[in-house]
Amino acid sequence: MTKLRFHIRFPEEKIPEPIIYQIGHEYQVVTSIRRADVRETTGWMDIEFSGNTEEIERAIDGLREKGVMVDPIELNVVE
Amino acid sequence: MAHKMQSLVCRECGKEYPTEAIHVCELCFGPLEVKYNYEEIKQKISRSAIEAGPLSLWRYLDLLPVEGQGSIGINAGFTPLIRAKNLGAFLGIDELYIKNDCVNHPTLSFKDRVVAVALTRARELGFETAACASTGNLANSVAAHAAQAGMQCYVFIPSDLEAAKVLGNLIYRPKVIEVEGTYDDVNRLCSEIAGERRWAFVNVNIRPYYAEGSKTLAFETVEQLGWRTPDQVVVPMASGSLLTKIWKGLNEFHKVGLIGPVSTKVHGAQAEGCSPISTAFKQGRDFFKPVKPNTIAKSLAIGNPADGYYALITVAESGGVMETVTDDEIIEGIKLLAQTEGVFAETAGGVTVGVLQKLAKQGIIKKQDVTVAYITGNGLKTQEAVVGSVGRPIRIPPSLAKFEQTFGQPGEA
How much is the ipTM here? Predict the structure, then answer.
């Protein structure tokens, strides 16, 4: 079981959509939200995905296809 | 005496952790930073003890996150604080200083400070391999320090990085891994690798210690000013960490009784082509929106800055501002610094000088303010940025007559 942590951001038009719920249904991953700030025009979450590595990577691709931006929890690793 | 490092503490929820190689709160995923036992440190530290210390950043050992002595990067820091009379006269500032990390040891940028601290701590924690993901200065510094320390070294770079920057790493014989994909792909992969390996990834699992090295810029500034704090400082922002740590350093000197209360205004400088933090500041927002960088100031080109939120808080707390400059203004800033003070800075220095000039013009920095501008890297590293802007040599045949035709007879000039 792999656990990976991400900082994800929602564009304004995606804020009303239940995206985390959808990801949990579409992929074999367990999601755990630790911090979030969702407002009218912007939103982000710090979230942990548990599952096997390939399935987590598929879920990340799925999030990106839905228009969600996915970064590592550290934000900028490359300096 | 109890340990000077009390714990690692979450900047968001306050949960404390042992001082190990961890960087994210297990509870809320907030970033961790070092918490010190200031009362203990206060009993020991003094101006005279610091002044008698080594001519490097390790003279501030009592306020650095290591348990023993500095063992890696022992010559880093204690760079010149230059009284910039010519530039000051040009800008209308009576007492202007340049903190010149262009000449930091061994790789000519301020990264030598953070890497010296990070790898010294990494060694204390038992690591034998250093690693980083970088597009320039950080990779240079990690590779050089690892070579000197006899550590294994892995450097991750995006596959489209310029050849000269790759060469600057390969000379130290680290393992350089070119990662295919976009910046975001490289960023995420490196985070995942850092989570899997027992490596000292300096700006990931060692980040709480690494970032503390930046405080030494503030410590040196105060000492070199004769134990005074400046009225105003201008700091370039990439991740925003440097700015927050300069503020932390100034205030730590007050906490341990070396100086009085701090009233320094801390100003942040970014390139217009990558200004997520400055834009948030100007729009009065408490959060920043990540951007795709598009600027010649590559060393500041972080579109999703880890400490952006904390930089916004710091600038507001100190009463400072944030400002941006265009790429043309960056080049003008580099030239202005070189032509007034003889200091050739990399593009980040052009950002700092450009913003300094704007703040002086706007009256935010006043004539009588003791002002320090932080120049964080050497211009020899980014010569391509100015190559089309500095003119050409004057070509003459090897003839005295031709020389005199061009420059006149002796005594005429």
Answer: 0.94
